[in-house]
Write a structure and sequence with these properties.
By secondary structure, this protein is mainly alpha-helical. The protein contains three helices and no strands. The chain is rod-shaped, with a radius of gyration of 25 Å.
Length: 72
Amino acid sequence: MSVFLLILLTACTTERKVYVNRPIPANLLSDCLPNLPPKSMTFGDSLRYNEHLLNVIEKCNSDKKSMRDINR
């Protein structure tokens, strides 16, 4: 008897979910490529290159967050 009531209760909803497949913008799908390191590197060059690499990672993470936001 309780199974029958459960079936009736689940069939009473009027909510309908529609999933829309939205394309991800091309600028979010582009590769995040860092510049190549200088051939000869001083300590200061190394610091600037590390900063550059961190900026590239930050941009990639921002792109991935934007893609996650699109899928919500």
